[in-house]
Amino acid sequence: MSQERDPSQPLVLLIGTLDKEGILSALKTAGWQYKIKRLDSSPENWASINSYFGTFNIRCALVKLTGISCELLTSLQYQDLRDRLLTNLALVPHIIFMHEELLSEEGDREGKDTNEESHIEWDTEDDLWPISIYTPSIETRKAAIEVLAARNLKVVPYRRNAELTVMASLFLADAEEGLLFRLYVPSGRLWANEIDRLLQLFRDYLSRIGHITVRLDQKRTEGGIVYAFFGPSGAGVDEGSIERSLAPQFQEFTEFLDLCVINPSLAEDILKSKNLDAREINGIMIRYAKEAKRIQVDLKHEREQKILSIRHRLESELIDVLPPSTDWNIVTALVDATVPTVPGISPALSNGGGHLNQITAAVNINYSPQIINAMNSIVASEIEGNVSLTNMDRTILDLVGRYAGNQELELTSALHELGDASVPNPSRLLAKQRLKAFLAQVGSKATDISIGLLQAYLEKKFGFS
Q1: Has this prediction a pTM greater than 0.85?
Q2: DSSP alpha helix (H) spans, 364-424
Q3: Are 288 and 256 contacting, i.e. CB atoms less than 8 angstroms apart?
Q4: Residue 207: CB partners within 8 Å, gap ≥ 6?
Q5: End-to-end Cα, the chain, rounded Å
Q6: Average pLDDT of 214-226?
Q7: Contact call for residues 49 and 37 (beta carbons, < 8 A)
Q8: DSSP code string of 262-279
Q9: Domain end position, chosen among 125, 145, 176
Q10: Residue 135 gets which letter from DSSP?
Q11: What value does the mean pLDDT take over residues 412-437?
């Protein structure tokens, strides 16, 4: 590519040793201009990287962190430059690749080469330091991970350069399409129909209230439906008014719907803050309040139908096992305690299986383990739909619910996509690696859980031992 770059056109930043043939081919096919910069370099080069964010409309940024990069991220000499760079990255679509050794907290392997390409490379233009990838001290690795996690940056681990290339190419393909938000809903999941309606309403909310032009696509797999929101794509598109991620807007949207029902005046205040014509606000409030009430009633009815279905299945399956003196009201209480309640619209979009209460903990009752397992199986199938979640899956979903923040829905979707064999392998690979990165970041918080065991389980779930 020519060194001449047009500031009026979007630019893709490749920060780190990302000049792989597959990545560059994807960029050339899309017709995007790009710039390769290095991180294992001098402070002056870091300043030049930051300058691109002020000069160009950055379409997206791909970053590869090495052991030396992690050292620099935690260096006082680079602190101001680092803060500027990470702030800039958070404002654009981005992905940060780190070798799994760098995310591991097991032992201190300083000096160990973790790169497939064990070689020394220099770049005089970027004042590049010699690249000889090694694993820095565990304290440095933890500090680097904490710096990235504090800004909710999207870190993805990799083992081999081939994996990195596959995930980078997929990320670029999504960026070319203008992907903003992605959600996987298992078939038959509790409130699946209501979630579909919510997403359609969310698209309308973005257009009418958020002034964001998006399209909503649906792709059916063997196990569920992948919903994807896309913004404008293609070279030369003005993205100044397009949000880089819809997760915050999605959270605001569900809270707005709840307020339409329980506190209309606060909901109206939200609309007034959106630069809407005052004459439109009343009509919008009437429409969304009506939709919110209708959805809330349907959520309640769906829950009641699930409880009835579960009870009927339990009675059919356990009638020959339980004694005639069994109090079926206790069974009903068990079911009611296990199916999620409907305090508002937002819980319908939670990760479901991650908060599935175990029947054994709901009511103290002297049933055999076989009966308890049968109850759990029936309840899980009715709530979770066409997926089979293991105890490991539920542990991961519980961690996601506790620590993922506004990335909860995306990480929940990642776990479901990983378990759906009909989803293309590149997407499943990226889903697995995002989950592994999340687990690495919360490892210091979830001290009572073996993070390494959960990460090994994700590898097995993907299909490798």
Answers
A1: no
A2: 369-384, 391-403, 408-418
A3: yes
A4: 213, 214
A5: 41
A6: 94
A7: yes
A8: H-HHHHHHHHHTTT--HH
A9: 176
A10: B
A11: 95
Query: Who's near 324: CB < 8 A, 6+ residues apart?
Result: none
CA 446 to chain centre: 19
**Looking at the DSSP assignment, which residues form a beta bridge with residue 37?**
15
Element (H, E) at 37: strand 33-37
Distance, in Å, from the CA atom of 74 to the CA atom of 82, rounded to the nearest integer, reads 9
Q: How far apart are CA 450 and CA 432, in angstroms?
A: 17
Please tell me the distance from the alpha carbon of residue 335 to that of residue 362, in angstroms, as a whole number: 9
Residues listed for the chain: 465
- The residue-averaged pLDDT of 287-307 equals 93
How far apart CA 312 and CA 279 sit, in angstroms, is 51
DSSP lists the bridge partners of residue 99 as 158
Neighbours of 277 (CB within 10 A): 8
| Assigned domain for 246 exists | yes
Show which of 176, 195, 210 is a domain's final residue: 176
> Are residues 31 and 79 in contact, defined by beta-carbon separation less than 8 angstroms?
no
In a domain, 31, yes or no: yes
Conformational region of residue 6, where left means phi above 0, alpha means psi within -120 to 50, and beta covers everything else: beta
Phi, psi of 444 (to 5 degrees): -75, -20
Cα dihedral: 392, 364, 333, 312 (round 10): 70
Average predicted confidence (pLDDT) for the chain: 84
Query: Structurally, how many domains does the chain consist of?
Result: 3
pLDDT tens-digit series, residues 70-81? 999 999 999 999
pLDDT of residue 249: 84
Contact, 232 vs 246, CB < 8 A? no
Q: How many CB atoms lie within 10 A of CB 463?
A: 12
The closest alpha carbon to 351, from 313, 306, 301, 403, belongs to 403
CATH number at residue 29: 3.40.50
DSSP states along 144-169: HHHHHHTTT--EEEESSHHHHHHHHH
Is 218 found in the same domain as 167? no
Token pair for residue 202?
A: 């969310």
| Domain co-membership, 169 together with 26 | yes
The pLDDT tens digits of the residues spanning 10-38 come to: 999 999 989 888 999 999 988 999 999 99
| Residue among 174, 188, 187, 198 nearest 422 (CA) | 187
417 and 428 Cβ atoms separated by less than 8 Å: yes
Q: Which residues contact 429 (CB under 8 A, 6 or more apart)?
A: 163, 166, 167, 462
Distance CA 124, CA 130 (A): 11
- Give the domain extent around 103: 11-176
**How many Å apart are CA 245 and CA 92, to the nearest integer?**
9
pLDDT band at 241 (very low <50, low <70, confident <90, very high): very low
- H helices within 100-160, ranges in order? 100-103, 138-149
Within 10 angstroms of residue 93's Cβ, the number of other Cβ atoms is 22
